[in-house]
Batch of 2 targets.
Target 1
Amino acid sequence: MTLSAHDYLKNILLSPVYDVAVKSDLVKLEKLSRSLGNDIWLKREDQQPVKSFKLRGAYNKLSKLSPAQMEAGVVTASAGNHAQGVAYSANMKQIRATIVMPETTPDIKVEAVRSFGGDWVDVVLHGTNFDQASDEAKRRAAEKSQTMIPPFDDHDVIAGQGTIARELLEQNPNLDILFVAVGGGGLAAGLSVYLKQLKPDLKIVAVEAEDSACLQAAIEAGEPVPLANVGIFADGVAVRTIGEEPFRLCQMYVDEVITVSSDETCAAIKDIFDDTRVIAEPAGALSIAGIRKYLKQHDDLHNLQLGGILCGANINFHTLRYVSERCELGEQKEAVIAVKIPEKTGAFRHFCELLGGRTITEFNYRFSSEKEAHIFVGIKLRNGLQELAELTGTLESNGYQWFDLSDNEMAKLHVRYMVGGRPPALLNEHLFSFEFPEYPGALMKFLNTLGEHWNITLFHYRNHGAAEGLVLAGFDIPNDSRAEFDEHLQKLGYLFEEQTDNPAYKFFLSDLNGVF
């Protein structure tokens, strides 16, 4: 069934979400507003009882069930905020709910769902990813004739999320542009179908993580299409395919789509903290990251009223080390570069003199030969990319060879911790990055599939609080066994990307020195 825009308007206005939800504050980010030359307003959905907007859609959906459906109970699959919203709503309405979560879900999220759901919710851990958990939820729903509660592709869920728009217009009817994070699209759909009917001149910009841009992919294809893979940092928007109904509405009412990087998202988390002392989850900070990037692309915009949604604050504590490490790169207040310096007394001192008093934030040194050394260096910037260009120009004029690693994800995730090791002899070494699921036995699966057949020459594991860890692994692969290796790689079933030609690897870790 297709609902009209008027139907959505009516459903949003009559939604009973305020049985459980609060009318969240719309606050002006004073510091960021001064910095960007526009008034920046933030809708504080972290103030909801479950620390995210997902409560609205979940409760609205459960409220629309028939008495028979309520008696039979409900099922959903989620590893995050939707699960908590359903659990809280089911407890409040005393509806039996089964929530299927992947086995990789961090304990803190599992315990939160159990706490919110109380005796009315049964948490089932199944599979190693969302797709497997979702399949199990659908199986259980069909087996017991229970209602599935979708996270975003549902009329009632969309209308529940749309109640935020009602509050926005009451709190600031003068907004010029609204920036909205997109995962499955339910929030953007609910907001835009309401706002465009009451204030059609309000521009709506969807913001996606650049490694999970399912709306952008759907717009380009003319229909929802699955992404080959999705990024794991902003897990709240890590959706492979946008919902059919959210896409229909976003196609009609969203004016523009912008994508942001993980570093830009980290900078936005810091922006929000600086003004509010609230720590947003990565997905919750996307709208502010979008505002920063949009204003950088449109430097003629001044004195406008710009709004964003802090859609969630359920962040794993251990993610903060990653955020802290990357936020200044996102703000362009730091750069990381690789430089060759002469291997002689006083070379490091001379290099530091050329920095002209700039602060070194990180320094990794590796002896390369009797003639030269390689360094991985982080440098504080006061004037962004212009200052970096001035600095690197100074290095070149003094005979230093360098290259920029600020956008090299492998260098920032792995190589910076590994500078110092090269193989003692020539190897047929090939390098791969993997997304490694966090569940018992995952490492043994990796070793059993690949490690018994090919010698592992390098291994670095990195986790920042997500359900997946990040692994960099090297293998000694003779030329005549590459096809066999590729076959085993496919059997492994993990997301991977070959990094053998990555310049950071060649410069710091390889037995080949082919960067310059």
Note: The chain is about 40% helix and 20% strand.
Target 2
Amino acid sequence: MLVEISRGTVSFGANTILEDINFIIKNTEKIAIVGRNGCGKTTLLNLIAGQVEIDRHDSDKSVFVSRRGKLTIGYLRQTAFDDDSATLEEEVKKAFQKILEAKARLNSLLALMEENATEEIVQEYVDLLEQFEHMGGYEYEKEYELLVQNFGFSEEDKKKKLSEFSGGQRTRIAFAKMLLSKPDVLLLDEPTNHLDIATIQWLEQYLKTYDRAIVVVSHDRMFLDNVVNMVYEIERKRITMYSGNYSAFTVQKRQNWDKQQKAYEAQRDEIARLEKLIDHFKGHPTKAPMARAKRSQLERMERIPPPARYDLRTFHPEFEPARESYTDALTVNKLEIGYGAALAQISFEQKKGQKLGILGGNGSGKSTLLRTLMGQTAPLGGVFSFGGNVDLGYFEQQMAQYSSDGTILSDFCAAFPTFTNNEARTVLGAFLFSEDEVNKEIRMLSGGEKVRLALCKIMARKPNFLVLDEPTNHMDILSKEALGLMLKNYSGTVLFVSHDRWFIRQVADSLLVFEQETVQYFPEGYEQFEEQRQT
């Protein structure tokens, strides 16, 4: 047992985040923590790491958090470094401090043995050499090179100072350093953020063979399916454990709900039958004893509660374009994109109703293509044109940082002054802003809520061509699934960038892949891309 939480409750002031939870980490388990945005997933990671405390009940010894002695916990959450003037190589190799110290001591012992090989010196050398080998002293350089390369850093990058890297790159540096330090428990909060698909796929294989425990919070369904073997779901402040990966969890949850619903309904029918029988015979002298026995049976019956509402609450927009575009929705011919130097040259055609996904490495030009098509960045060469009657709806990533002094309702009504209050509430309700939710202040919204509000505004204009740059960032898995279903059923045209493989597979019927300064078109979508990649 590495970590055990027994009947833990976590509160901040009067707000209870987690209530009466039981949680265990064993040996080499690969655990996912799942739940809706704001349910307490990161709070649980902080609790495991010892950065928050459970509510204490002095008289109740069954409430505790227990961690095995000398347990090492690595927590991927922040990217602050002690010294930004250090190079990438210097920072990452800090993970090998014990190995490097042992190597230095071995060298000094060798020098001593050349002068005077006493029994004590020889024995210390033999013992330390065994420890050095156990720590991976002969493999650490190779492992360092492999991790740095797979996280997308070049030989030149190794000598750069940390201050020269972007936020996403700094996260990857911190991640590589933590993996190389090999803690007993890895705590990963959205580890696939800032990683391209090739790196995510490599990371999946690395974590699957990691010989210690992993606890991960992620909205990447395919990543969870490929890595974890245990799922803890947080719902309504409580936690429930399921065996298997994420897909297995969804099946078990539905089965458990159905089983309890059937048991509840069967008992409800039996209670109604007994009550009817008691009511019918209680006035008959010869049947009164039987009626009393049935009443006693009814009173002793342990009642089965109805199952908690199955929480699939998510947005359900059904917006259709105000008009149809012409068949040729977008034509791109030898379009050169970039800033100064061209990142790529692209040619493709998109027909009305086609769902075209775009994927590729960080900095390869995916978002630059969308910004060029939307007139925000000038092309370096080539041409493009949208077809007749195209009405564009554009989602860009910075919309997740949108803020204003108004509420959701007032902000929406300001954008659509012709809508009545009821019409505005109906549209907002389709994106999960219902009843009192519409009175929340914009500045208090989470990133996922701001994305939903931005998409709501876009869809309310009823465009027939959606251009979406990473729309699933900040969304929980259920919201991603709902958005995927909406786009799949949408009769208009969609051009979108995403790193989420499950989402791409669900939505895109064709694919553009940016890779090594080239752009390749896959008319049959993600499956065709995967088949070619594996050959």
Note: The chain is about 40% helix and 20% strand.
